[in-house]
Design goal:
By secondary structure, the chain is mainly alpha-helical. Strands 2-3-4-1-5 form a 5-stranded parallel sheet, with helices on both faces. Strands 6-7 form a two-stranded antiparallel ribbon. Helix 38 runs antiparallel to helix 39 (about 815-830) and helix 40 packs antiparallel against helix 41 (about 850-865).
């Protein structure tokens, strides 16, 4: 290496580090407090004569130059002389070019500098021309390093010195070694050396320097990690000058992946282009610069990896790139070393992706459209050959006309069916429509099956009439083509289930009977369809027969699905016989096994969830009842049972009533009504409106309850048993709350099975009405019904005792009434059913001495207030007792802001983004809000906000 490059004296001056790319004017240093603290500490130590070196590394745009500029500003403020330079890729062949650039203005006689003898003149021939000495090049480098160190030492006499060289990855080896030498010998000097370089460039000299910085006491290595999401939020707000829209913030956070330069560029770009358009040029420049350093084979492989996305497995990459495995592995190793590609480990095999999402996007869009289509088609073909048909579908879709039609139909059909199974209806619609367009001309035999999948799709969207037409077309077309009769039988089962959902029970029963049951060969879900139809039809003898067939199923099919429905059958038989304890044990087994059944699991789990919800409530296990009513499990079920979400949400709302949480119960019922309207079936709309009318009546919102019940009456169908029960319950509750119990509908037949919570409440409220209107014979009948409803169901027996206490009090049997009411209240309190217990306590208080009555009334009043129920507290006031107000507590301004946003439905992450707080800070504020308001859940807080907004508008 020559010590003095030709022309080194004529190197151009460049802007300072503060003007480099990535150092956005006016943008403060954000999210780098810890790293800047290290630099500030090193500057302070250097100012006291304890110098050293700090190396700053990271990916392009991460903020290395910005951090260095901040260090320069801090050092300049402390009186440091700033010596700064930057390596340039166009001058990388010129030895010591960054050093010449950095020192030129300082090592001149005009600047008062008098160089010591040595080789510094070789770098600056205009300062002291010398002829290079002949001899050992290594010795020459040492003399050069000593000469520059001596010159630097002379600079430090006047003031401390900060030497910064940026983009060291573009520098020659001599520059790197010289900086390292200066840093190693700065221990006793007021000199701080800062070098910034890009990670993963494969520069041996830089790697050695970084390792030495880690080990040396006076050295530091700052490896800049991506900015946190909070720092990105702060950066985005600063760029915009206002709180950013959530959609823009999410887009920047996800795509920039914590790279400061990308976050700033994307923010300006997305704000100006309204969330669309090509990538900003500055981002594309960074990527082009990186790609330009690659050889042809590596560049081509990077393009393949970018197009492959998440499917970059070695065999796919080898197939498409044409590289053998040894050459592929070598190329991947180079790309991983340059931090352009990352390796993801899995249990089966590794796969490779472009390291940064914007790099992948930029590489992808640098390709011509024809190139992209060719690569997508090739990747899809490679995946198809590897039996990854579903994974091939998006690549075939992007491959255009270059994909063979048969392969495209197969892949799109498989992907659409898979999307249906997991409940992604939009994706399913896209793939199934693409498959059907091609199949009508090229594969007519595939059309019937595609129509069936499209029917399932329409079911999931609640378009049941369209689904019925598609299923009928599929069956008719299959018959005309003489296709497999067993497949048509399976489709007729789907037709039967669809007719149940449409409320056409006779047609459903007819289709089910015509298709028949074959327990020895039918899959569990097909037998489950017969079970559901019998349940909805109220044909309990048939339900028992099918349940026994389910119990026997494992004898011919030893699968988790078969064992799951066997437990369901056993649980149903136990429930039919009134043995709730056995029923719960069996249903828990059914649910546990269903959850092991993969894609089929959500459908198999739905019936156990519904039954467990009700039975657990009646056994006093509210925690299990709420847990199993997992509404989030239903999207994958809706394309099979469109009413799934609606039913489970309604049951969950009823459980909330038992738990004494009317605010959350009403919120759940609001969601259920909205879901029922989406599905569009009269029985569902009527049932949910009646359910909401009941909850509103219990909250004292009688006019709103009347309106809901009137609306429900428009959808009334007495043949729908569950609708009949919900309607009668709401009508009875309203009659009781308005004091016109004589107008309550009569309690006729009661079902031994079905929605157990609803039935229980229906019977209980019929008992209230009977006592209120003085019909004590009917009141006693209700007691008998509750006691006979099930064995080992303590909640039912507690409600029977409560009803008996009401009747005894009406008959003047005070002692018996006190014993019954006190016992039932204690039992119900023990189960966490404080609202039901408080109703018993209020009746009890009227039979007790004044002092004891005041204590009991106070306990009941607190439960009513916490539940959000007003009719009972109004009765307490009429009795001359006081009712404690619901605690509101003094909320701070920030707590009020967060509470309002919770009421608007925002998540903690959304609130943090809107208010520019951390999620942890939001959680802390919410804990304080819960404590001040006496609330225990987010749902209750949201309802609290809505209640107060409603009060404010009245």
């Amino acid at each position: 290496m020559d010590a003095a490059p030709a022309g080194s004296a004529d190197l151009p001056r460049r802007g300072g580090i503060g003007a480099y790319r990535g150092s956005e004017p006016g943008v403060p240093l954000i999210g780098r407090d810890a790293e800047f603290a290290v630099l500030a500490g090193a500057i302070a130590a250097a100012g006291e004569g304890r110098g050293g070196a700090v190396l700053v590394c990271g990916q392009p745009g991460i903020g290395k130059s910005r951090l260095a500029a901040e260090a320069i500003a801090a050092a300049r403020g402390k009186g440091f002389a700033i010596v700064e330079g930057r390596a340039d890729p166009l001058l990388s062949g010129l030895s010591y070019a960054p050093i010449v650039q950095a020192f030129r203005g300082h090592l001149s006689e005009s600047a008062g500098f008098s160089p010591d003898p040595g080789n510094v003149g070789a770098l600056f021939p205009d300062l002291r021309p010398v002829s290079p000495e002949a001899g050992d090049p290594g010795l020459q480098r040492i003399r050069m390093c000593e000469a520059v160190l001596a010159a630097t030492r002379q600079l430090t006499v006047r003031s401390p010195v900060l030497l910064v060289v940026d983009d060291l990855h573009c520098a020659d080896r001599g520059t790197i070694e010289l900086l390292h030498y200066l840093g190693r010998n700065a221990d006793d000097l007021p000199l701080l050396v800062v070098g910034c370089f890009r990670s993963g460039v494969g520069n041996e000299a830089l790697d050695a320097m970084a390792e030495a910085a880690r080990r040396h006491p006076a050295g530091r290595l700052l490896e800049l990690a991506p900015l946190t999401d909070q720092a990105v939020r702060d950066l985005v707000q600063h760029v915009l000058g206002t709180p950013p829209p959530l959609a823009l913030l999410r887009a920047v956070t996800s795509r920039a992946s914590g790279v400061a330069l990308f976050a700033v560029a994307l923010t300006r770009h997305l704000a100006a282009s309204r969330m669309c358009g090509p990538l900003p040029e500055v981002i594309r420049d960074v990527v082009r610069e990186q790609i330009g350093l690659l050889g042809e084979a590596d560049r081509r492989l990077l393009e393949v990896v970018a197009v492959a996305g998440t499917q970059g497995r070695p065999e796919v990459l080898a197939d498409v790139s044409g590289l053998g495995l040894p050459a592929l592995h070598a190329a991947l190793r180079r790309l991983v070393g340059r931090r352009l590609v990352v390796e993801h480990q899995s249990e089966v095999e590794p796969h490779y992706q472009v390291a940064h999402p914007l790099y992948a996007e930029a590489v992808y869009h640098e390709l011509l459209l024809a190139e992209r289509r060719t690569l997508h088609a090739a990747i899809g073909t490679a995946l198809h050959r590897a039996d990854r048909t579903v994974a091939a579908a998006p690549h075939y879709a992007a491959g255009g006309d270059s994909v063979p039609v048969d392969r495209a139909i197969e892949a799109f059909s498989a992907a659409g069916s898979r999307a249906l199974t997991v409940g992604d209806l939009d994706e399913a619609a896209e793939y199934l429509a693409a498959a059907l367009r091609r199949a009508r001309d090229a594969r007519p035999d595939a059309v019937p099956a595609l129509l069936v999948d499209l029917a399932r799709l329409q079911q999931g969207r609640g378009r049941l009439d369209e689904a019925a037409e598609l299923l009928q077309d599929a069956v008719a077309l299959s018959e005309r083509r003489g296709q497999d009769t067993e497949r048509r039988r399976a489709w007729r089962h789907l037709q039967a289930l669809l007719e149940v959902e449409r409320g056409n029970l006779p047609a459903a029963v007819g289709l089910a009977r015509a298709s028949g049951r074959r327990p020895a060969t039918d899959p569990p879900t097909r037998l489950l369809i017969h079970w559901i139809i019998a349940l909805r039809h109220g044909d309990f003898p048939e339900l028992a027969v099918i349940s026994r067939e389910l119990v026997a199923l494992p004898s011919t099919s030893d699968t988790p699905g078969a064992h799951s429905v066997a437990h369901l059958g056993a649980g149903a038989l136990a429930a039919l016989s009134g043995d709730m304890e056995t029923a719960v044990v069996e249903l828990r087994g059914a649910l546990e096994l269903a959850l092991r059944c993969g894609d089929e699991g959500p459908r198999l789990a739905f019936a156990p969830r519904m039954m467990l919800n009700g039975l657990s409530t009646l056994r006093g296990d509210l925690a299990t009842a709420i847990r199993v009513a997992d509404v989030s499990s239903t999207p994958a079920v809706r394309q099979w049972l469109p009413s799934a979400t609606c039913y489970l949400q309604t049951m969950l709302a009823t459980t909330r009533y038992f738990a004494g949480d009317l605010r959350t119960g009403l919120s759940e019922m609001d969601s259920a009504v909205a879901e029922a309207r989406r599905v569009g079936q009269d029985r569902l709309v009527g049932r949910t409106l009646a359910g909401r009318a009941f909850v509103r009546a219990e909250r004292g919102q009688l006019d709103e309850a009347d309106a809901d019940l009137a609306d429900a009456r428009q959808h009334y169908d007495p043949s729908q048993i569950d609708l009949l029960d919900a309607f009668d319950l709401a009508a009875t509750a309203l009659a009781v709350r308005r004091g016109v119990a004589a107008q309550a509908p009569a309690l006729t037949d009661t079902l031994p099975f079905g929605d157990t919570q609803l039935n229980c409440l229906r019977i209980s409220f019929a008992g209230y009405a009977a006592v209120q209107r003085g019909d004590l014979v009917e009141a006693e009948r209700v007691v008998g019904l509750l006691r006979a409803a099930g064995n080992k169901a303590p909640v039912l027996h507690a409600l029977a005792d409560r009803q008996q206490g009401f009747a005894d009090a009406a008959r003047g049997k005070a002692a018996e009434a006190v014993e019954r009411l006190r016992g039932s209240a204690t039992t119900l309190r023990g189960f966490g059913m404080n609202l039901l217990a408080a109703q018993a306590e209020l009746e009890l208080a009227e039979l007790l001495p004044p002092a004891e009555a005041e204590v009991v009334t106070s306990s009941a009043a607190a439960a009513f207030t916490a539940a959000g129920s007003t009719p009972w507290p109004e009765r307490i006031v009429k009795q001359g007792h006081s009712v404690p107000a619901h605690r509101s507590g003094p909320l701070t301004r920030r707590e009020s802001e967060i509470t309002a946003l919770v009421g608007n439905g925002l998540s903690n992450a959304d609130i943090a983004a809107a208010l520019f707080l951390s999620e942890r800070t939001v959680e802390t504020h919410l804990r304080n809000v819960y404590r001040k308001l006496g609330l225990k859940s987010r749902v209750r807080l949201a309802q609290w906000v809505r209640d107060r907004r409603g009060e404010g508008s009245r």
